[in-house]
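INTERNAL AUDIT FORM
Audit reference: QA-55
Scope: verify that the stored structure record matches its stored sequence.
Auditor: D.O.
Record contents follow.
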Amino acid sequence: MSSVPKTADDFNLEAAFRDSHVADVLDQLDSELVGLAPVKTRIRDICALLLVDTVRRQAGLSTEALSLHMSFTGNPGTGKTTVALRMAEILYRLGYVRKGHMVAVTRDDLVGQYIGHTAPKTREVLKRAMGGVLFIDEAYYLYRPENERDYGQEAIEILLQEMENHRDDLVVILAGYEDRMDRFFRSNPGMSSRIAHHIAFPDYTAAELLAIADLMLDQMQYQLSADARTALEEYIERRQALPHFANARSIRNALDRARLRQASRLFAKRAASLARNDLMTIEAADIKASRVFAETPPTARQGELHS
């Protein structure tokens, strides 16, 4: 089957994708974050839009100024900050920001405590973020209508102005719990109208959390014994049932405590010599010592990790 001959009007989208090296960032996102299929699909969709927009400009076709400000909603530990970091790299490689760095802030970095304090704080943060991404975690705390002397609204107004005036040199990503972000946007229609992309980050399943633990352990050069793996499966089920569960963040904390117990266990033995495997292996006792096993019974979700 003969290929269609190229003409002077042909433009190579594949070449644009290859030359941008965006594939490297997308591959990194896949390797460092377990699951999150809908989030990764949305990020790829945004990449496709930006690439096509670039090729349209090369073809002399009209292109609208893209609004790239985003909202990331989801519970703690679902990868929002990591995805924001990779988004900054993607935007840089595609030429939509000058530097590709990310500045992560919270309300305290933007809002002052007295009159005249908020504007310089907010503008300083914006200055640092120019040419990259400004990531505002728990963004809903900027708006506190119950406090008449709160200066968060001043920070919001400055942000709105800069988001519009520098949309070609700054991308703002607002992050937080979905329900609170919804209320924030309803109370601030000007902010809502400037957010083009709303991306929801789902909680991880128990099986995904176990895979995340494996990834973390491999990076730290630790391993689980067979009994420890079983204990960690049960730990995950129990921990998910407790308040303040933070997905991958809670798993990281659990592994850090298990490493601490492993170190104490090895030190208590005062063995004359240790095998490399001893130094690497976390045992069931290192997991079972967690207070989670005393605070909550096993969940009824039997078999979820093995389904």
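Auditor finding: record pair retrieved intact. Residues 125 and 211 are 36 Å apart (CA to CA).
Action required: none
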